Amino acid sequence: MSHIQAVPCNIITGFLGVGKTSAILNLLKNKPSNERWAVLVNEFGKIGIDGSLFEGQNTHSDNIFIREVPGGCMCCAAGLPMQIALNQLLARAQPDRLLIEPTGLGHPKEIIAVLSAEHYSDVLDIQKIVTLVDARKLNDTRYTEHSTFNDQIAIADVIVGNKQDLYGANEPAALMQYISQHASVETKVYFTEQGILQNHWLQGATQLQHAQCDSHHNNHHSTNNHNNSHQHNTPPKPDINHQAFPACGYLSASNQAEGFSSIGWRFAPNKIFHYAKIKAFLLAQLGSAERIKATIISTQGGVSFNMTKDTQEETSIELPAQSRLEIIAPTLPANLDQQLIACLND
Q1: What is the dihedral of CA 45, 56, 21, 216, to 10 degrees?
Q2: Model confidence over 284-343: pLDDT tens digits?
Q3: Lower CB density within 10 Å: C or N end of the chain?
Q4: With left for phi above 0 and alpha for psi between -120 and 50, is residue 218 left, alpha or beta?
């Protein structure tokens, strides 16, 4: 990649359901038309959804290139899954800017350590690290006592209080107070809604001390703080995103770490969902789910869903190659397969 030099690179991070995907979609809509942008997206779930969400609303003709790394923290095995995907994306896209979206449960310092390695020193220009935060979550110890949530704030050059239209009167001030205790004094803070970011927030060098990340990275992998599914001496399982469909016409896979569980499905292209039934199914899961994403072949054509408890985005998209769904929650019901099959159009 010697011909690719100093590509501006931003990490867009934040906890589950804070609006990272919406924020990146908004950035892509407002990018300079003459620039080529690339997005490397990491997902907690094992079914790749974000890539098809982005691609459903953007094409290569828009000078936008997407690559995803599903299945949890992409920095495992000393960053090998991430490095392979990143190298392929950079070679294909030759981008003017690279956006990296880690999973909401990922370890941001590990990702920065990979990007700061000597191999990328001339290739990437690491610019502002942007962390989205929902101020309403400061009342929930599942967030404030979660090391990843606090790490995301600690590493940020820019913190964006997203969903401000849903805040109570005292919540902006509470977020500012929390930031003052957990972030650098040089961190910039903005408030927005619906994931609307300004492109100029991305520009400028990160203030993060990369040496600290390298130290954290080495300690992390030497002590193997990841859950058992990430142990490096475990042979990798076949990637469900490329397996052939069995006779039943669908595949599912689950993941569990950091106090959350995910389950995802791929359905064969001939499996068409009844639009009203699948929408009702997804909405019904929001009582317990933190995050729901789907790209669906439905009776009304291609449709994507991007949902949290207070944000239900639905978009008509080009017909996807197959239907994909992912649900992330603290706990998951046991009979979701049967409920999904009942949503198919007979």
Answers
A1: 50
A2: 999 889 889 999 999 999 999 989 888 888 999 889 999 999 999 989 988 999 999 999
A3: C
A4: alpha
Phi, psi torsion values for 318, nearest 5 degrees = -60, 150
Quote the radius of gyration of the chain (alpha carbons, Å): 19
pTM of the model: 0.79
pLDDT tens for each residue of 56-110: 555 556 899 998 887 655 555 445 778 888 999 999 999 999 999 988 777 778 8
Q: Is 275 exposed, middle or buried (0-12, 13-18, 19+ CB in 10 A)?
A: middle
Q: How far apart are CA 23 and CA 197, in angstroms?
A: 6
pLDDT tens digits, residue range 251-268?
998 888 878 888 999 999
Pair of tokens at residue 247: 């006779």
Report d(CA 136, CA 169) in Å as an integer: 11
Burial of 223 (0-12, 13-18, 19+ CB in 10 A): exposed
CA-CA distance, 116 to 154, in Å (whole number)?
17
How far is the first Cα of the chain from the last one, in angstroms, to the nearest whole number? 50
By C-alpha distance, which of 250, 155, 253 is closest to 207? 155
Q: Which of helix, strand or coil describes residue 204?
A: coil
